[in-house]
Amino acid sequence: MVSGVATSLLFSFLFFPSKEGLINFVIGLFGMDPVGWFTNPEVARYSIVLMSLWGALGYNTIIFLAGLQSVPRDLYEAAEVDGAGTYRKWLYITIPYLRPIFVFMLIMGTIGGMKRFTDVWLIGGTAGNPGGSLMTVVLYIYRNAFLASQMGLATAVSYLLFLIILILTVFLMLLNRRKDSLD
Hints:
Elements: H1 4-14, H2 22-29, H3 41-69, H4 73-81, H5 86-114, H6 118-124, H7 137-147, H8 151-182
Helix pairs in contact: 1-3, 1-6, 3-5, 5-8, 7-8
């Protein structure tokens, strides 16, 4: 589990655009040209997504491990007595017990994705460079509130972001509750 600032600095080093970057150095060994990980607008978004996935891996792993430890061992023993193999135990015991964890992680990932700021600000600056491809809603709010002094617009977008996150969260929770009632 690493902070967003440390992750951004690490990936800035790894994805440095010239051959000094570690990833570009390695692909240069295979005769390929350096990739502009954070300088090419078409590649920058995917690089940020990759960086975000790596940054969230530790947190998600801890949550899923806690969920796995909450699955009753008696169910696995009963399934073995009934002749269930590893695949069936995973499909019919582990996955259903982890469904609340999946829903929680989906909600947290959605909220995290909607409020993305630190890493894109550190990588792309206040303009969301390259070419605005890294502009997020929260970076847009920041630019309008603190750089352009348009507090009204920033406030309106903030309320809209809140409503979108609220609606998505309620929808995902209702979807989970509906599936619980079907079981």
